[in-house]
Amino acid sequence: MDFSYTPQEDAFRATLREWLEKNSAEAFGSKGQGLGGSTASLLDVRDDERWAQLLDYHRRLYRAGYVALHWPKQYGGAGATLVEQSIYQDEVLRLGLPLYGANQLALDRIGPTIWLMGTEAQKKRHLPKMLTGEEIWCQGYSEPNAGSDLAGLQTRAVVEGDSFVVNGQKVWTSLAHRADWQVLLVRTDPQAPKHKGISYLLVDMKTPGMTIRPLVQITGDAGFNEVFYDNVRVPKENLVGEINRGWEVSIATLMYERLSGGTRHPVERTINELIELVKVTSFEGMPAHQHAYVRQKIAQFAAEARCLRLSRYRSLTSQLRGKVPGPESSFGKLFATELNLRVAMFADELLGAYGNIDEGLAAVEGGSWTHRMLAARGLTIAAGSSEIQHNIIGERVLKLPKG
User: Fold this and answer.
1) Binning pLDDT at 50, 70 and 90, where does residue 39 land?
2) Residue ranges of the chain assigned to CATH 1.20.140.10
3) Which of 23, 25, 54, 171 meets the CB 3.0–4.6 Å disulfide criterion with 102?
4) CATH level 3 topology of 137-244
């Protein structure tokens, strides 16, 4: 495998790196570290000032033409090559920055679903404002009794005149408290088989009858929400695809989500920060960086992170050869989030009692490692749990019989 880049690609990286370092520092402060690098913290942004910083950074990405390198030019994207997209991901993750500014859900999964399966009117209405960040999007999928088993959803929609009337509840809805629009899965034929009778709607979050309540997690973040629908009227023209065939549309969104949630997780940056932590920490009465156990753990994490990167390059090579991405997105998601969990748990072991302190003078690095430890488990559940990813890999890659 050839890992070299062309002179043009090297020049693209150099220009991009300079821009990212300068603009992230201006948008987020002198350290230029975004909002901590984790998906959970990026979606939380309870503080209005931090949200304003994220919107500012999004607008900078848009003006520079970096906000949607992977979108076709016909829809307002940059139409960048796959290699340029890979370089962008490397550089963004190196700095722990959000890939898509303030509108991650719109740009990495909802927008592509609309330009793949939506009407021309839907594309014209929604895609431009996704890019500019004028309209923020969230995703109404999970329900209290339909998480990993998404096809078990019970939120209903019935047709009345020119509208769908929606009643039900969604949960774990990231960014609902900031969003202007939502993609919503609803059951439109309760008599149909489990994966049938589902429709995919685009819903204005200002529609009467919607109630949003934040869900505070163990980290203190409240990026997730539960959303209630009480006779919410959605125009028929907001249906994506065919009525009762929304499962096919939702699968497209889920595949984009798992691709973005796996190999694009900033675990390499976390490991690099762990290395810096080890340099200034003691473990079992000696400098941690001199301890054989600590050195072995760091080496193992670094090797696994490099394997993850090489796996992404293998997927990139496959795409460059014209092949469609397949279940490897499940491998990337599974491996990255499980590795991140092991890194966070080791940091907790390394810090001992100090790992339980998240504020005050005794908090190590402002409690950031405590937050990482508490948040890491959730990332193995989001975007399809590790158990679901194991099933996908076993059944679709290894061709094992269903259990």
Assistant:
1) very low
2) 263-397
3) 54
4) Butyryl-CoA Dehydrogenase, subunit A; domain 2 (2.40.110)
| Overall average pLDDT of the 45-52 stretch | 77
Confirm if 351 and 364 have CB atoms less than 8 A apart.
Answer: yes
Q: What is the pLDDT of residues 351-400, one digit of tens each?
A: 999 888 888 878 888 888 999 999 999 888 877 788 888 888 888 788 89
Residues belonging to the active site = 257
Q: Is the pLDDT of residue 42 over 70?
A: no
Residue 151: per-residue pLDDT:
86
- Per-residue pLDDT at 327: 62
Q: What top-level class would CATH report for the domain 263-397? A: mainly alpha
> How far is Cα 69 from Cα 55, in angstroms, rounded to an integer?
18
Q: How far is CA 160 from the centre of its chain?
A: 35
- Where does residue 55 fall: left (phi above 0), alpha (psi -120 to 50 degrees), or beta otherwise? alpha
| Structural contact between residues 62 and 131, judged by C-beta atoms closer than 8 angstroms | yes
C-alpha separations of 153 from 94, 214, 225, 246, 252 in Å: 38, 21, 17, 12, 17
> How far is CA 395 from each of CA 167, 181, 389, 402, 403, rounded to the nearest angstrom?
35, 35, 10, 7, 9
- Residue 43 to residues 104, 139, 146, 221, 282, Cα–Cα distance (Å): 9, 12, 21, 9, 34
Q: Which two tokens stand for residue 195?
A: 């994966």
Phi then psi for 202, rounded to 5 degrees?
A: -105, 120
User: Has residue 32 got a pLDDT over 50?
Assistant: no
Report the 3 state secondary structure along the chain.
Answer: CCCCCCHHHHHHHHHHHHHHHHHHHHHHCCCCCCCCCCHHHHHHCCCHHHHHHHHHHHHHHHHHCCCCCCCCHHHCCCCCCHHHHHHHHHHHHHHCCCCCCCCHHHHHHHHHHHHHHCCHHHHHHHHHHHHHCCCCEEEECCECCECCCHHHCCCEEEEECCEEEEEEEECCCCCCCCCCEEEEEEECCCCCCCCCCEEEEEEECCCCCEEEEEECCCCCCCCEEEEEEEEEEEEHHHEECCCCEHHHHHHHHHHHHHHHHHCCCCHHHHHHHHHHHHHCCEECCEEHHHCHHHHHHHHHHHHHHHHHHHHHHHHHHHHHCCCCCCCHHHHHHHHHHHHHHHHHHHHHHHHHHHHHCCCCCCCHHHHHHHHHHHHHHHHCCCCCCHHHHHHHHHHHHCCCCCC
